[in-house]
Please model this.
Amino acid sequence: MITRSDLPLRVINSSPDAIAKAKARARRSFRQIRTENVFKRTLTIMGLIIIILVLGIMVTLAWQSRLSIAALGPKYLWGKVWDPVQDVYGAWPFLLGTLLTSFLALIISVPFSVSIAIFLGEYHPKGWLPNFLKNAVELIAAVPSVIYGFWGLAVLVPIVRSFESSIGVEPVGVGIFSSSLILAVMIIPYAASLGRSMISLVPSHLKEAAYGLGATRWEVIRSVVLPYTKSGLFAGVLLSLGRALGETMAVTMVIGNTSLIPKNIFSPGNTMASVIANEFTEADKPVYLSALIELGLVLFLVTVVINLIGKKIIDRFTNE
Amino acid sequence: MDGKNVKLRLGKSYGFQWLIYVLAFACLVPLLAILFYIVRAGITKINWHFLVNIPKPVGESGGGIANALVGSTLIIFVAAVIAIPIGIMAGVYLSENRKSRLAYWCRLCTDILQGVPSIVVGIVAYFWLVRPWDIGPIHHKGGFSALSGSAALAIMMLPIIIRSTEETLKLLPDSLKEAALALGMPFHRVIFKVVVPVGISGILSGVMLSVARITGETAPLLFTAFGNPYLSVNIGKPMQSLPLMIFNYATSPYTDWLNLAWGASLILLVWVLLLNIFTKVITRKWKVQL
Amino acid sequence: MESTIIKSRNFNASFGSNHVVKNVNIDIPRNHIIAVMGPSGCGKTTYLRCVNRMHELIPGASCNGEMKLNDEDVYQMHPIFVRLKIGMVFQRPNPFPNLSIYDNVIAGYKLNGIKMPKAERDRIVEQSLTKVALWKEVKDSLNKKGSFLSGGQQQRLCIARTVAMEPEVILFDEPTSALDPISTSTVEELFHELKANYTLIIVTHNMQQAARVSDKTAFFFLGELVEYDETKTMFTNPKDQRTQNYITGRFS
Model:
């Protein structure tokens, strides 16, 4: 196997000891070449695994919801009644619940996350106080959602209940409003950290040009920084929305879990994620289970689309 | 320009600056409220007894969370064992093949995976790893296992590990790899002995963050690890985990169980916070100066 | 005895559709110092990277033609064997930042998993560092990280790392362009020491350096090998008008 040409020329004319050593080394290299090929193939397989995983998720969801898709058709999406006992499955209450909680949460959280982004990206990029704020925002993202839910149930719900009775709606406490409040806190970090990095990318010559014209700090932010970063901020908001739509535990614990269409933002309801969490292990009929999985499929598709749009915007923004 | 106008504009500028300050720091209020409340409610429940005992049935006071602690540790450990090698290698694959078609799709799938709601991962893991072992027409009859929970969590870890590995390795200079290749090193050794060790702080921080993230995950475990009131170390059987226990006990009406849930929440919170702090320390300490 | 160690015939290299090395024919004699010079973008570095097959690592890069090492086609061998026999030193010093000075010298063995007794390793490290005149400067700080050294020392460390692998040819890609004048002269002195055991091919855009250190010089212009001759002849009596223009500074 080992030919002359595998050995360095200078070794060939030297001692047998050196030749033996060189041969051993060459043999070793041959082994390594084989390992190298195996390794390269393994890497490709790992890349493939990720693709197969995602395709598998899609196929599994689609296949397992086939019963419900076949039995209920598209009107599943706007059916207003969800009554497994009567075999009536309409997803509208959950779609509405999801949209209400997510957008309400978004509306509440955006002013805060944008403020954090401006504070950290523009006013005070360095120092102990911004550092502290940055870590605190990261902490908000780190706290497990089940803890948000528990805290919401124990602390927030009673507060909301007394608030509700003071404004004269039925004082349930749990419901869309409480979920939105909790969600709003939970999604602040996503838009904030993305917005911060986008704002810090604003070229300083643009800002200096505005300052040079005598603009005040706020005018620079409003007419230079925000317009420049608006697509980035929008992407951050989209990613937050994706989070909010898919968030399960905290919402499940404080939303009240009823399959009725919510009458207003204070009434209890259910989101797509929370109804799956609650009823999945109780589904005792194939169609029931399949209808729940179809909810999962819808949720999956919506969040994937939102996330991909957000990512595309970020990519375009950072590559410019 | 008259001075009054300038004064007005400056006043507006300062006004908005203060508004931004107030709104930015307002987010600390709920955070501190949560931390404060969890610590206050949880600290009195935690003692040695609490850590080494399993929960008592309804009506008996006392009991602890040993089963959840053991279960969480085990489930996370197995998830990490599954996800870390796949994640790092896929990340290496992406950083080594920046332009190939397969890499493009792989990157896209990683992005998709990152956005998949955790409950959906739970559903899928249920159909892959619980249902096939389920006896009877529709669940209820078993099949739930800690292993399926670990697999679900591993899926959640993957995109974080892949992304951080890829981003870290992308930032390493080409000269590093060239130096190793010019010494006649085979590709796998270049990766394992040079590229990964130099990028270790970034890769590790991704791994740690992914562990921190799944530590608090509940939704994927609902239909996989399922929960178990007893201490179990058999990964083929249902197993309790901290977040699952908190969810189940927090929504129960019994004071004893609520107390357990508060104690467990504090432990979970401290665990996650320590992981986050630890990540920061490691990232700083193990950073290789280029 | 003067024997040819590297021989190229009709060698071409390109990046995608960009043809950067055109039809190069060259014979490089053993134990000589060959300088490759030319204005930037003339393909000299690309040609050098083709010799030990580093060129193909760049996505989209391709090459064809004959490149022989000791009468054996480099492009028929596995790159690992090629690179074990043809070492390379880069433009910027690139010691492994995670390794100590000692480990950097022995990196080719250590990172390749080649086991050997400690005495042997110590011998290789000392020998290699002595060859690059670095031993005296670093022998008390072998366990420090390589990145603590100065630029010139780092570059010599990189040369030591390459020398430790006992290659037959060492390629230098503008080895002194990132160094200060004093370090440059130290490295240049080194070339003469190394000549006894190795064949050196040095890419440089510095004519004076080519004139100072090399036995033979090749002049590349727009991807072509314009002239290849004894250094003395080349600088005193160039045959091609373009070479003449280059060495008299009419263009750079």
Remarks:
- Residues 118-131 of chain C form the longest helix (14 residues).
- The mean pLDDT of chain C is 89.
- The CA atoms of residues 16 and 168 of chain C lie 31 Å apart.
- The beta strands of chain C are 4-15, 18-29, 33-37, 61-69, 72-73, 86-89, 169-173, 199-204, 216-221, 224-230.
